[in-house]
Every structure is written in C-alpha cells, then in structure tokens.
Design a protein that fits this description.
The protein is of the alpha/beta class and 360 residues long. 46% of the residues lie in helices and 19% in strands. The protein contains 13 helices and 13 strands.
C-alpha cells in the first residue's frame, strides 16, 4: 500500500492506494466520529462492491445506511442529489454520521456536496472506483452538480477525511472508462511533470493492460501532483486552475452534446488538443509537440478531435466557465510540455481558430 498526505493543516487527510483496501476496516475506523455511516453508491458500482464494503464495516460494529443513485453524468443534478438527503433524513442520520461515497466521479462529487450541505457539514470519505476518480476527482475537495447551462456550476469546496483507492476495483472498469481516466493522468504530465509524461509514453500499454504495479505508480504520481497543488491553493485562487487543462473546452463539449454523451475524460482529451492548438498558435508549442500529445491520447483510446458544435456555440458555453473573472475567460495553456500556464488574453478569434482546427 502507498500512502500520501494532503497537507491542509488541521484538515489534512491521507490517500491510501493499494489492493484489497475495501476489506481494511483499520484504515476507515480512525476517521469515523461515531458507529454510523451512510454509503452513497450507484446502480452499477453497488452490485459489484457495496456488500464487500458493508461487510467490512458491519464486522467492525458499524451501522450502515445506503442509497443507490442512477448511474451516469446525466443524473448529476439537484433532483438526484435530493435522493441522498431523503435517505439521510429517513435514516435520522446526525451531523456526526460519516458519509462514504463509493463509486466514480459523479458519486464522489454528489456525495461530497451532500456531505457539505447536510446539517451544514458531516464527515465525508471518498472510496473512488474508477481511474478518473482515483487520480483526480476524489482528491482536493471539489464537489458539485451540473446545471443545464454549465457543468459543476452548483457546488462547494469540501475536503474528505480519507481517500481509499482500491486498485482491485479497476478490474471491472469498462475499457472506455479506463481510457477516460488516462486523460486526467496524462494531464499531470503536461502541466507540471515532464518526467511523468515521458514515463507514460513508455508505459502506457502496461496501464491499458491494468498491470497493478504500473497502475499503483501512475495513481500515486498523479495524486502526489494534485495534492501538492491543492495544498498550495485549496480554493483555486491561482495555481490550482492549472489542473483544468482542457476542461474549459471539454466542459463546452459535455454541455453542448448533453451530459453523458461523451465521458468527462473523453471531452478533456479533445479539449486539451484545442488548448495545445492555441498554445501552438501563440508560438509556445511546436507542431511536433502538438502531434506528440495527440499520439499519446490516441494510444490511450481517447478522441483528439472535438465534435462540430459550431464555433459560436463553443464560445457561448465557454463564457459560463468558472474561470471567467471580470468577464474575461482564463484558459489553461501550455508554455511548453510539462509547463502549464494561466492565460487570460486569448481573443475570441484566437480561440475560434483553435476550436475550428481541432473539430471534425
């Protein structure tokens, strides 16, 4: 087992990465305030892993309540969030009850947001079961639901007490979901860790083959990068925005097509190619650099071209992005491979040219 720490003072918490962790009550119990937990999962993950986690907790003397949500980004909304509150209230859960999110990014985001809101805050544990959630969304305390006008626009920063990344859960992950997670893994190399990017180029097939040692290394390296950024800028006032490489373009794709049509990681990959194209237009990346990024995404089974929503539609959706300040959109671009930058001076014409160049 590999363990990292997210350094946030009194709210610091561990990230445990390894195999067989769903059976490790000794990792979970120290984080609980009482002997009551409420598990939020979904209709796909629940049948695979809920009973294993429930058995672990009940054997340790815990009382367990459960709510299972419908699967998918299309259900990451306020009506579905209310189902969590319905369960917490029906079970008479208290502020000291710990909410455990067992699932991918949607479950983690919604579980965390519910924990932040219920009785103004209850303890929260992340047990991510997808690669994307293990390397990205479970770490850092971003929680939210979507709105028809924008992705993740209703939410809160709310840190978990523990992240438990059991690599064994990746054995049942569909190939498409595995690829989507690799988009976020590759992101860390592109924005701040060139050595990791080179490792990924050399070891991508090992990750696609789900070799445990390769997965453990990639998850740990990704989480270490994110933990360092979050510790320096918890609420995204500066450097943390770099973690959104490709996300402004990608969120426009997700919203424009309808939530769930493309997986988040797929949209991020295509969005990253748009960001790389704009970086090339600005003279920061060479054409060979852009092709190098594209080749890695393609090897990972990810799209490198965005859908043709229309340039005006892209720009309209991007105007709702959370990184808009004083009416000005801040984009995450690449000054070089391994060096992300926050750029607030891209003109609509420059963004339009990059979008047009990377859509087909």
């Amino acid at each position: 087992m590999r363990t990292l720490n997210v350094a946030l003072g009194e709210r610091a918490y561990p990230i445990h990465i390894g195999r067989g962790l769903l059976e490790r009550a000794d990792l979970i119990l120290p984080q609980l305030k009482t002997k009551r937990v409420a598990i939020v999962t979904n209709d796909v993950v629940g049948p695979l892993y809920l009973e294993r986690l429930r058995a672990t907790l009940e054997a340790a003397g815990m009382q367990v309540a459960v709510v299972s949500l419908p699967d998918g980004e299309a259900h990451k909304d306020l009506p579905t969030l209310n189902r969590i509150f319905d369960m917490l209230l029906a079970e008479r859960c208290e502020r000291s009850t710990t909410l455990i999110a067992l699932g991918g990014g949607v479950v983690g985001d919604m579980g965390g947001f519910a924990a932040a809101c219920y009785q103004r805050g209850m303890p929260f544990i992340q047990i991510p079961t997808t690669l994307l959630a293990q390397v990205d969304s479970s770490v850092g305390g971003k929680t939210a639901v979507n709105h028809a006008l924008g992705k993740n626009m209703i939410g809160a920063f709310y840190q978990p007490r523990l992240v438990l990344a059991d690599i064994d859960t990746l054995s049942t992950l569909p190939v498409r979901e595995l690829s989507a997670g690799l988009a976020e893994v590759i992101k860390y190399g592109l924005i701040r860790d060139l050595e990791f990017l080179e490792w990924l180029e050399q070891n991508l097939e090992r990750l696609l083959a789900r070799e445990p040692e390769a997965l453990a290394y990639a998850i740990e390296r990704s989480c270490r990068n994110k933990a360092e950024v979050v510790a320096a800028d918890e609420t995204e006032q500066g450097e943390r925005a770099l973690l959104n490489l490709g996300h402004t373009f990608g969120h426009a794709i997700e919203t424009g097509l309808g939530y769930g049509e493309w997986l988040h990681g797929e949209a991020v990959a295509a969005g990253t190619m748009m960001a790389a194209q704009l970086s090339h237009q600005l003279g920061w990346l060479s054409a060979a650099d852009v092709e190098r990024i594209s080749a890695l995404f393609e090897r990972a089974g990810l799209p490198v071209w965005g859908p043709r929503l229309g340039v005006e539609r892209y720009l309209e959706l991007m105007a709702h992005d959370k990184k808009v300040e004083a009416g000005k959109l801040r984009l995450i671009l690449l000054r070089a491979l391994g060096q992300g930058v926050i750029h607030g001076d891209a003109s609509p014409a420059e963004m339009a040219a990059a979008i047009e160049a990377r859509c087909r």
